[in-house]
Amino acid sequence: MLDTTINQPVPNVPIVVRQQLSGGTTVLRSSSTLGAGQFAFTNLPPGTYMLFADGYVSAPQLSYTLTNQAALSGVTFKVNPIPLPYQPTNLPASINESSPAFALDSSGRPHLVWQRGEEIWHAYHDGTNWNATGSLPGAIGKPQLSVPAQM
Question: Is the pTM above the cut of 0.90?
Answer without folding.
Answer: no
